[in-house]
Design goal:
The structure is a homodimer.
Chain A (H helix, E strand, L loop, with lengths): L2 H11 L2 H13 L4 E2 H7 L4 H13 L3 E6 L2 E6 L1 H11 L3 H4 L8 H8 L5
Antiparallel strand pairs in A: 1-3, 2-3
The first copy, chain A, binds a DNA duplex through helix 3 and helix 4.
Chain lengths: 115, 115
DNA sequence: TGCATATTTCAATAATCCTTGTAGTATACT
DNA sequence: AGTATACTACAAGGATTATTGAAATATGCA
């Protein structure tokens, strides 16, 4: 995962309907859902859903499989995980344990240790 | 964290320089860095950096503190974490353990359990 | 083969976002 | 007060992205 990849993923998710689609597919699990059902669930036109699904696919966040005359889409878990890791990499100079669950805690622990 | 919030965060990060800024600040830790130093680090004009910093601030991913005539920006860890959680919420019908570290594993475990 | 269903592709318009330059505000120093 | 530094706000343009409708492709079934 590099910066360009991450931007593509983030941009793909940075849209109301696409985020809804992605979360729906995450919820649905590996077997996924056909495009038409997805479109209906997020209240999109077939054309619109197709456009957004293509964006998510292009980013590698979902993948398509044709099953008869349906095309099923499913979330690609690894890609999200890679992106999430990339986002917080090298946290606090490589000491992620410094940034506990709250900012206050992190601030207390890290204070004075940055240039 | 709701869908609108998440889209704002994702859009804020979905830009090369803003992602670089955010990762720089994550690396830097709670004490943050002044705007000028950030601009220089990501090779942005002062105006450009200011615009991008404002976007990240608006999304709640970083926050500004004036220190003398400098304005220091620092990453807001909790916000990222909230967003990351939101992204994978209700994974596999509320059974996140089904989506282990690889898609293969998840697929094996979940197979046949979705409608 | 011919028709129906599921989905995509294409083209055009509308909307949004990024960039650049200029001017403005806030603080510090003399 | 006057000047320098650090940064932000505004405005105009160019570029990218979203939306829509119409036409095309692929599959399944009679």
């Amino acid at each position: 995962m590099n910066s360009k990849d991450a931007v593509t993923c983030l941009a793909a998710l940075a849209h109301d309907q696409r985020l809804a689609i992605f979360r729906l597919l995450v919820k649905e699990g590996p077997s996924g859902l056909p495009a038409g059902e997805i479109a209906e669930a997020v209240d999109a036109t077939p054309t619109g859903a197709s456009f957004h699904l293509k964006e998510l696919d292009r980013a590698g966040l979902i993948h398509a499989t044709r099953v008869g005359r349906y095309i099923r889409y499913a979330a690609h878990f690894d890609k999200v995980r890679q992106m999430l890791t990339f986002l917080t990499e090298d946290c606090c100079q490589g000491n992620p344990e410094l940034c506990g669950s709250t900012l206050k805690k992190a601030r207390k622990l890290c204070k004075g240790e940055t240039k």
